[in-house]
């Protein structure tokens, strides 16, 4: 589980990333889809997906 700078809690279960703001993202092969459609088409692994989603929420809170 991660906390983004905007206060959103982000958790991962398999290829699904869920956010406490109600949004979710799915990794299908190398394509990341989200609430607005395709977010990225060249994702190499789930760690990269988490980084992308954290970036969409302002980055990781340390």
From TrEMBL:
The lineage of its organism: Bacteria, Bacillati, Bacillota, Clostridia, Eubacteriales. It comes from Flavonifractor plautii (Fusobacterium plautii). This is Uncharacterized protein.
């Amino acid at each position: 589980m991660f906390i983004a700078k905007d206060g959103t809690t982000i958790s991962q279960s398999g290829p699904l990333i869920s956010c406490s703001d109600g949004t979710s993202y799915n990794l299908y092969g190398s394509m990341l889809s989200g609430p607005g459609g395709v977010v990225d088409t060249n994702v190499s692994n789930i760690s990269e997906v988490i980084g992308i989603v954290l970036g969409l929420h302002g980055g990781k809170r340390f």
